[in-house]
Amino acid sequence: MFSRIGIIGAGAMGRGIAQLFATAGQQVWLYDTRGEAVAEALKFNRDLLQRSVAKGRLTPAALEQTVARMQPAAELKELADCDLLIEAVVERLEVKQALFVELEGLVGEDTVLATNTSSLSVTQIASACRRPERVAGFHFFNPVPLMKLVEVVRGERTDPSVIERLVTLAEHAGHFPATTPDTPGFLVNHAGRAYGTEAQRIVSEGIATPEQVDRILRDGPGFKMGPFELFDLTGLDISHAVMESVHDQFYYDPRYTPSYLAAQRVAAGLLGRKSGQGYYRYENGQQLRSLEPAVPQGTIERPFWLGNIDPQLRARLRAVLDRCGAVLEEGDEPSDRAICIITPFGEDASQAIERLALPADRTLAYDLFSDFDKRRVLMRQPALEPALEAQACQAFAADGVPVEVINDSPGFVSQRVVASIVNLGCEILQKGIAAPTTLDRAIELALGYPKGPLAFAQHYGPLNILDILQGMQACYGGEPRYRPSPWLRRRVQLAVPLDTPDAGRH
Length: 506
Ligand code: NAI
Description:
The protein is an alpha/beta fold and 506 residues long.
């Protein structure tokens, strides 16, 4: 392993990396071109550790030992006898390349040079070096001590032993190392593109408002934050730039197409929390949420009829309607008065109504990906009678569980967002960007999703996910954005688990 670690750049990331390794028992030197930056970083780290002492999680003696392991370096040459140098300076290719060339002139032949870049190519940074095989990506997340993932990025010419040593070091410090080849966005920033990008697409088609999308994704699949809250927290300028960069670097693959609406909002300065207004407004740092629409009042005059559905789900929906005082018909065909409820996967309501020859003026769709006890999602279509929409809404909300009514969409909101996350995860596996054993853990740790892509697929059923993607692609005229990953399709067709690796890989 490494015994002397030099860190260049004492900003938010550099100081966090220093604290992580000093806590793990390593000797660390910290250097920055801005003289005061190192002292500020060391003070910041001491104050943080002090808080752990106050909470009883660290002894005062351990604090002093950890702090003593973090030393300032006034000049770059003081790092000459380190066996690992990690740079966390500004995100500019020419600055990082020049730094690595200078470092190569100072250090021994076997010193490893690692970059914390989040968006530049490790291979390109290394291309300026005499010995590119000693260069790797070591991409941490902010705040470093708390975010327990690090991507260990293999440039085209990185020596495998360098990756192994960085993996061992990361594990020693209690971080989960996700090894990944040098591809756009690496693993996490690539996998993270489906959530917000698909949410933007939903809003751009007028299917639901940003607040509705957030509520549906929090209460259905169980995301801690909706995608639009997340845009507001990160800053739309930052998120949109990442979306554009990944899209550009994959040569405009439509899976990653960002939203023109987001570009306009960035131009307008609607960046989120930091500008006081984004998708939400903020007062004194508090997010202001709109009141949810009131449940329509009146008597539920019409009976309900449920399309073909699994008997267990039928029983659960019947129980909901019973509790709400609505009547469910039993026949195979709806009566002339019945409000028809269909439960499509991937298809939009219009298409399903035509296929099933149902009366369009009284048919709505219900999303089986919604949590029946937390928030139910109904979908209207252009021919629906508004008075019947109100009755349906009342019949699903009368027990106090909120109901969200959205416009017609292949895959409602949750189905299409979850299916997009699974599909992108499968593409990442197909391209060898992550091993099946790494993918979910990395995403749960770095993005805080309630489940990784493979666990989501397991939860909702891989066949349902494939149906949703195929349905979406058909509804959008074969749009390649929604083409199912061959990784997913093959494993569903062959009825093997989604984490089954390809022979000879990983
Ligand atoms: P920062 O702006 O907080 O700190 C950068 C530090 O580098 C500054 O103190 C600056 O004085 C110093 N610096 C600039 N040029 C230098 C040079 N040539 N030699 C020595 N020091 C130099 O930036 P932050 O956020 O810590 O980011 C650093 C790197 O980490 C960037 O490459 C960034 O993309 C990457 N990163 C940032 C994350 C974040 O959430 N902030 C997450 C993951 C990676």
